[in-house]
Amino acid sequence: GLDSPRRRSSQLLFSSAYKKHPYGIPVIGYEKNVRSWPVKKIKNFYQSRYVPSNMFLVVSGDFDSVEMKKKVQNYYGGFENFKLRKVKRPKEPVQKKYQFRALSY
């Protein structure tokens, strides 16, 4: 993602706007961190956050509801229901001054 101007500008925007909240961190994480994590840590994270009770699916368009419900159940019904680890998000402080950030290549 570092070679995509759109993604880089988005990361710069979010890291500038969010100082405490996780929105300031790239969704996939920082490469140096991810590379250093053991597989067990990544698996535990996945199993504690990507659980059916913490997901939703939006389907739009012209389709038959009964048929679509069957398809959704077929594709997503087998998700294991691991225990959701609830996370308390820090409150983002109000920013009161102008800031400017730029990257050069």
Element layout with pairings:
Elements: H1 5-17, H2 31-36, H3 39-49, H4 65-76
Uncertain segments: none
Fraction of residues in β-strands: under 5%
Tally of DSSP helical segments: 4
**Average pLDDT metric:** 89
Morphology: extended
Radius of gyration: 19 Å
- The helix-and-strand class reads mainly alpha
Biggest pleated-sheet summary: none
Task: Spell out the helices and strands N to C.
Answer: HHHH
Topology, number of strands: 0
N→C terminal distance? 15 Å
- The residue fraction in helices comes out at 40-55%
Describe, in plain words, how this protein is organized in 3D.
The chain is an all-alpha fold and 105 residues long. It has four helices and no strands. The chain is extended, with a radius of gyration of 19 Å. It starts with a helix and ends in a 29-residue tail after the last helix.
Main features:
about 100 residues
Short structural summary:
With 105 residues, the chain is mainly α.
